[in-house]
Amino acid sequence: MDESRTLRRAFTGNAIFSLLSAAIFVLGGGAVASGVGLPSPLPLQLVGAGLVPFGVGLLWLARRDGLTRRNGRIVSLLDAEWVFATAILLFGWPERMNASGHAAAIAIAAVVAGFAIWQWAGAQRILETH
Questions:
Q1: 13-40: b (≥16 Cβ within 10 Å) or e
Q2: Rounded distance, CA 4 to CA 68, Å?
Q3: Considering only CA atoms, which of 107, 78, 79, 106 is closest in space to residue 90?
Q4: CA-to-CA distance for 10 and 12, rounded, in angstroms?
Q5: How do residues 40-65 score in pLDDT, each as one tens digit?
């Protein structure tokens, strides 16, 4: 059995979610910004643009040989940073978005946290040989 299968699936799911989010933020930034109470779509578009290389990188990792625990842990920590940044945004600047924006940010952070946990668990299944 391939010990890296769990991590590969987690990376693939995270990549798909990230790339779909990127498309929504970049192409529909105006509508999304209006719906969540942001005065400008630019922050969403910039986040979306940043998600593109992240998602592509995850797809690349998911398909390469030699996936390591370190790969899973690094991506898990990056996802944990997203969750932490969301908390800072919501608690530090609660007036930046409306209630729908808060709900959307929390929902996205919950999905990202799920990927972080899934990836960490997948990384733990990989046997390291030194």
A1: bbbebbbebbeebbebbeebbeebebee
A2: 8
A3: 106
A4: 5
A5: 999 999 999 999 999 999 999 999 98
